Amino acid sequence: MPYYITDDGIDIYYECIGNGEPLVFIHGLGASSEMYKPQVEYFKKEFKVVIIDLRGNGKSGKLECLKDEVLDTQIKDVIQILDHLEIEQSSFVGVSYGGVFIQKFAITYPNVVNSLIISDSFCDTSTDSLQKALAMFGAKQTWILRLPNKWLAKLTTSSYKNWPLAGSEMKKVIVNMRKRETILQRKTINNIKLNNDLSTLDVPVLCLVGDNTKLGIKMMEQVSNLTDGELVVIEDSFDPSNLCQPTVFNTITHEFLQKVFS
To answer: Which positions fall inside the AB hydrolase-1 domain (predicted)?
Structure first.
Protein backbone atom coordinates (compact mmCIF):
# COMPACT_ATOMS: atom_id res chain seq x y z
CA MET A 1 0.00 0.00 0.00
CA PRO A 2 1.35 3.46 -0.86
CA TYR A 3 1.81 5.67 2.19
CA TYR A 4 3.45 9.03 2.66
CA ILE A 5 4.98 9.78 6.05
CA THR A 6 4.38 13.42 6.96
CA ASP A 7 6.83 15.77 8.65
CA ASP A 8 5.28 14.87 12.02
CA GLY A 9 5.48 11.12 11.38
CA ILE A 10 1.89 10.30 10.39
CA ASP A 11 1.17 7.74 7.66
CA ILE A 12 -1.16 9.14 4.97
CA TYR A 13 -2.64 6.68 2.49
CA TYR A 14 -2.75 7.74 -1.16
CA GLU A 15 -2.78 6.32 -4.67
CA CYS A 16 -1.70 7.87 -7.95
CA ILE A 17 -3.23 6.22 -11.01
CA GLY A 18 -3.03 7.06 -14.72
CA ASN A 19 -1.35 9.78 -16.74
CA GLY A 20 -2.33 13.25 -17.89
CA GLU A 21 -3.40 16.37 -16.05
CA PRO A 22 -3.50 15.79 -12.27
CA LEU A 23 -6.93 15.35 -10.68
CA VAL A 24 -7.13 15.05 -6.89
CA PHE A 25 -10.20 13.61 -5.14
CA ILE A 26 -11.01 14.47 -1.50
CA HIS A 27 -13.62 12.33 0.26
CA GLY A 28 -16.56 13.16 2.49
CA LEU A 29 -16.92 13.21 6.28
CA GLY A 30 -15.77 10.00 7.95
CA ALA A 31 -15.36 8.34 4.56
CA SER A 32 -12.29 7.36 2.54
CA SER A 33 -11.01 7.49 -1.01
CA GLU A 34 -12.96 4.29 -1.71
CA MET A 35 -16.07 6.43 -2.23
CA TYR A 36 -14.58 7.53 -5.55
CA LYS A 37 -14.33 4.11 -7.21
CA PRO A 38 -16.68 5.08 -10.09
CA GLN A 39 -14.65 8.25 -10.69
CA VAL A 40 -11.24 6.55 -10.53
CA GLU A 41 -12.28 3.98 -13.14
CA TYR A 42 -13.61 6.70 -15.41
CA PHE A 43 -10.95 9.40 -15.12
CA LYS A 44 -7.78 7.27 -14.90
CA LYS A 45 -7.96 6.76 -18.68
CA GLU A 46 -7.25 10.43 -19.32
CA PHE A 47 -5.99 12.01 -16.08
CA LYS A 48 -3.39 11.42 -13.38
CA VAL A 49 -5.85 10.57 -10.62
CA VAL A 50 -4.74 11.08 -7.02
CA ILE A 51 -6.89 9.75 -4.20
CA ILE A 52 -6.04 10.42 -0.56
CA ASP A 53 -7.42 9.31 2.78
CA LEU A 54 -7.28 12.46 4.87
CA ARG A 55 -5.63 12.20 8.28
CA GLY A 56 -8.16 10.67 10.68
CA ASN A 57 -9.95 8.70 7.96
CA GLY A 58 -9.71 5.42 6.09
CA LYS A 59 -6.25 3.88 6.10
CA SER A 60 -4.44 7.05 7.23
CA GLY A 61 -3.01 7.79 10.67
CA LYS A 62 -4.66 9.42 13.66
CA LEU A 63 -6.01 12.97 13.69
CA GLU A 64 -4.98 14.47 17.02
CA CYS A 65 -5.22 18.25 17.11
CA LEU A 66 -7.49 21.06 18.19
CA LYS A 67 -10.75 21.61 16.32
CA ASP A 68 -9.50 24.84 14.76
CA GLU A 69 -6.37 23.09 13.46
CA VAL A 70 -8.06 20.19 11.65
CA LEU A 71 -8.35 21.59 8.12
CA ASP A 72 -4.92 23.24 8.21
CA THR A 73 -3.35 19.97 9.40
CA GLN A 74 -5.02 17.95 6.65
CA ILE A 75 -4.16 20.56 4.03
CA LYS A 76 -0.51 20.41 5.04
CA ASP A 77 -0.59 16.62 4.56
CA VAL A 78 -2.03 16.94 1.06
CA ILE A 79 0.44 19.60 -0.06
CA GLN A 80 3.29 17.37 1.14
CA ILE A 81 1.94 14.46 -0.93
CA LEU A 82 1.63 16.67 -4.01
CA ASP A 83 5.22 17.84 -3.52
CA HIS A 84 6.29 14.20 -3.16
CA LEU A 85 4.54 13.38 -6.45
CA GLU A 86 6.08 16.48 -8.07
CA ILE A 87 2.64 17.89 -8.88
CA GLU A 88 2.85 21.67 -9.09
CA GLN A 89 -0.78 22.28 -10.08
CA SER A 90 -3.92 20.16 -10.05
CA SER A 91 -7.67 20.21 -10.36
CA PHE A 92 -9.53 19.13 -7.23
CA VAL A 93 -12.82 17.29 -6.69
CA GLY A 94 -14.48 17.40 -3.28
CA VAL A 95 -17.85 16.10 -2.12
CA SER A 96 -19.50 17.28 1.12
CA TYR A 97 -16.65 17.66 3.69
CA GLY A 98 -14.28 17.23 0.77
CA GLY A 99 -15.91 20.25 -0.85
CA VAL A 100 -15.21 22.39 2.20
CA PHE A 101 -11.66 21.05 2.26
CA ILE A 102 -10.84 21.94 -1.36
CA GLN A 103 -12.29 25.44 -0.93
CA LYS A 104 -10.02 25.99 2.08
CA PHE A 105 -7.13 24.38 0.20
CA ALA A 106 -7.61 26.75 -2.76
CA ILE A 107 -7.71 29.75 -0.42
CA THR A 108 -4.49 28.56 1.28
CA TYR A 109 -2.61 27.49 -1.87
CA PRO A 110 -4.24 29.32 -4.81
CA ASN A 111 -1.23 28.81 -7.09
CA VAL A 112 -1.53 25.02 -6.79
CA VAL A 113 -5.14 24.91 -8.03
CA ASN A 114 -6.15 24.70 -11.70
CA SER A 115 -9.86 24.26 -11.07
CA LEU A 116 -12.36 23.11 -8.45
CA ILE A 117 -15.29 20.71 -8.69
CA ILE A 118 -17.33 21.17 -5.50
CA SER A 119 -20.30 18.88 -4.90
CA ASP A 120 -23.05 18.74 -2.26
CA SER A 121 -21.12 21.06 0.03
CA PHE A 122 -21.19 24.55 1.52
CA CYS A 123 -19.00 27.50 2.48
CA ASP A 124 -20.93 29.03 5.37
CA THR A 125 -22.74 27.31 8.24
CA SER A 126 -23.95 30.50 9.90
CA THR A 127 -27.73 30.83 10.07
CA ASP A 128 -29.35 33.76 8.28
CA SER A 129 -32.90 32.39 8.24
CA LEU A 130 -35.18 30.25 10.42
CA GLN A 131 -35.27 27.53 7.73
CA LYS A 132 -31.49 27.33 7.56
CA ALA A 133 -31.19 27.51 11.35
CA LEU A 134 -33.51 24.51 11.78
CA ALA A 135 -31.79 22.51 9.05
CA MET A 136 -28.29 23.29 10.28
CA PHE A 137 -29.31 22.47 13.85
CA GLY A 138 -29.96 18.91 12.75
CA ALA A 139 -26.79 18.66 10.67
CA LYS A 140 -24.61 19.97 13.50
CA GLN A 141 -25.73 17.42 16.09
CA THR A 142 -22.61 15.32 16.68
CA TRP A 143 -24.36 13.14 19.29
CA ILE A 144 -25.98 11.23 16.43
CA LEU A 145 -22.54 9.99 15.40
CA ARG A 146 -22.16 8.41 18.85
CA LEU A 147 -25.03 5.98 18.22
CA PRO A 148 -24.05 2.33 17.59
CA ASN A 149 -22.76 1.84 14.05
CA LYS A 150 -25.41 -0.82 13.45
CA TRP A 151 -28.18 1.72 14.09
CA LEU A 152 -26.51 4.40 12.01
CA ALA A 153 -26.00 1.96 9.12
CA LYS A 154 -29.69 1.06 9.16
CA LEU A 155 -30.74 4.72 9.17
CA THR A 156 -28.32 5.49 6.34
CA THR A 157 -29.50 2.59 4.18
CA SER A 158 -33.13 3.71 4.49
CA SER A 159 -32.16 7.23 3.38
CA TYR A 160 -30.64 5.89 0.16
CA LYS A 161 -33.32 3.39 -0.89
CA ASN A 162 -33.59 5.14 -4.29
CA TRP A 163 -29.83 4.96 -4.84
CA PRO A 164 -28.56 1.43 -4.07
CA LEU A 165 -24.91 2.09 -4.99
CA ALA A 166 -24.78 5.13 -2.72
CA GLY A 167 -26.63 3.22 0.01
CA SER A 168 -24.18 0.33 -0.14
CA GLU A 169 -21.12 2.59 -0.06
CA MET A 170 -22.47 4.86 2.67
CA LYS A 171 -23.27 1.82 4.80
CA LYS A 172 -19.59 0.83 4.51
CA VAL A 173 -18.62 4.37 5.54
CA ILE A 174 -20.75 4.15 8.68
CA VAL A 175 -19.55 0.67 9.63
CA ASN A 176 -15.87 1.68 9.24
CA MET A 177 -16.22 5.22 10.57
CA ARG A 178 -13.68 6.37 13.14
CA LYS A 179 -16.08 8.05 15.55
CA ARG A 180 -13.79 10.29 17.58
CA GLU A 181 -12.07 11.73 14.53
CA THR A 182 -15.31 12.01 12.53
CA ILE A 183 -16.92 13.98 15.36
CA LEU A 184 -13.86 16.25 15.54
CA GLN A 185 -14.09 16.94 11.80
CA ARG A 186 -17.85 17.54 12.05
CA LYS A 187 -17.26 20.09 14.81
CA THR A 188 -14.64 21.76 12.62
CA ILE A 189 -17.06 22.43 9.77
CA ASN A 190 -19.95 23.32 12.08
CA ASN A 191 -18.52 26.85 12.27
CA ILE A 192 -17.15 27.41 8.79
CA LYS A 193 -17.35 30.76 7.02
CA LEU A 194 -15.25 31.08 3.87
CA ASN A 195 -17.29 33.77 2.11
CA ASN A 196 -14.81 36.63 1.99
CA ASP A 197 -11.85 34.47 1.00
CA LEU A 198 -13.80 32.56 -1.66
CA SER A 199 -14.59 35.72 -3.57
CA THR A 200 -10.85 36.26 -4.14
CA LEU A 201 -10.35 32.95 -5.99
CA ASP A 202 -9.53 33.22 -9.67
CA VAL A 203 -9.92 29.65 -10.97
CA PRO A 204 -12.70 27.87 -12.88
CA VAL A 205 -15.24 26.36 -10.47
CA LEU A 206 -17.96 23.77 -11.10
CA CYS A 207 -20.62 23.43 -8.42
CA LEU A 208 -22.75 20.26 -8.39
CA VAL A 209 -25.67 19.44 -6.12
CA GLY A 210 -28.42 16.85 -5.98
CA ASP A 211 -31.99 18.06 -6.47
CA ASN A 212 -33.34 16.20 -3.43
CA THR A 213 -32.35 18.86 -0.90
CA LYS A 214 -33.59 22.45 -1.06
CA LEU A 215 -31.12 23.64 1.56
CA GLY A 216 -28.29 21.90 -0.28
CA ILE A 217 -29.17 23.73 -3.49
CA LYS A 218 -29.33 27.04 -1.65
CA MET A 219 -25.94 26.48 -0.04
CA MET A 220 -24.32 25.48 -3.32
CA GLU A 221 -25.85 28.54 -4.99
CA GLN A 222 -23.98 30.59 -2.41
CA VAL A 223 -20.70 28.83 -3.28
CA SER A 224 -21.37 29.34 -6.98
CA ASN A 225 -22.14 33.04 -6.58
CA LEU A 226 -19.05 33.72 -4.47
CA THR A 227 -16.69 31.88 -6.83
CA ASP A 228 -18.42 32.94 -10.05
CA GLY A 229 -18.77 29.20 -10.66
CA GLU A 230 -21.01 27.15 -12.91
CA LEU A 231 -23.89 25.56 -10.97
CA VAL A 232 -25.49 22.30 -12.10
CA VAL A 233 -28.37 20.70 -10.20
CA ILE A 234 -28.32 16.93 -10.79
CA GLU A 235 -31.73 15.38 -11.22
CA ASP A 236 -32.76 12.54 -8.89
CA SER A 237 -29.67 12.88 -6.73
CA PHE A 238 -28.59 13.46 -3.15
CA ASP A 239 -25.34 13.83 -1.18
CA PRO A 240 -23.06 12.23 -2.40
CA SER A 241 -23.99 12.86 -6.03
CA ASN A 242 -20.90 11.04 -7.29
CA LEU A 243 -22.48 7.81 -5.98
CA CYS A 244 -26.18 8.60 -6.45
CA GLN A 245 -25.69 9.52 -10.12
CA PRO A 246 -22.10 8.50 -11.00
CA THR A 247 -22.55 8.53 -14.78
CA VAL A 248 -24.07 12.02 -14.81
CA PHE A 249 -21.50 13.27 -12.30
CA ASN A 250 -18.61 11.92 -14.36
CA THR A 251 -19.94 13.30 -17.64
CA ILE A 252 -20.55 16.81 -16.32
CA THR A 253 -17.17 16.88 -14.55
CA HIS A 254 -15.37 15.59 -17.64
CA GLU A 255 -16.97 18.21 -19.90
CA PHE A 256 -15.99 20.93 -17.43
CA LEU A 257 -12.38 19.71 -17.28
CA GLN A 258 -12.18 19.55 -21.07
CA LYS A 259 -13.11 23.24 -21.17
CA VAL A 260 -10.53 24.03 -18.47
CA PHE A 261 -7.72 22.40 -20.42
CA SER A 262 -8.83 23.33 -23.96
So the answer is: 22-236
pLDDT tens sequence across 93-128:
999 999 999 999 999 999 999 999 999 999 998 765
Q: Give the span between the Cα atoms of 126 and 111, in whole angstroms.
A: 28
Report the C-alpha gap between 167 and 153 in whole angstroms.
9
Q: What is the pLDDT of residues 176-195, one digit of tens each?
A: 999 999 999 999 999 899 99
DSSP 198-228: HTT--S-EEEEEETT-HHHHHHHHHHHHHHT
Domain count for the chain, please give it.
Answer: 1
User: Do the Cβ atoms of 92 and 260 come closer than 8 Å?
Assistant: no
Domain that holds residue 106: 3-260
Q: Considering the entire predicted model, what is its pTM?
A: 0.93
> Rounded distance, CA 133 to CA 126, Å?
8
**Residue 105, CB half-sphere, CA atoms under 13 Å: how many?**
32
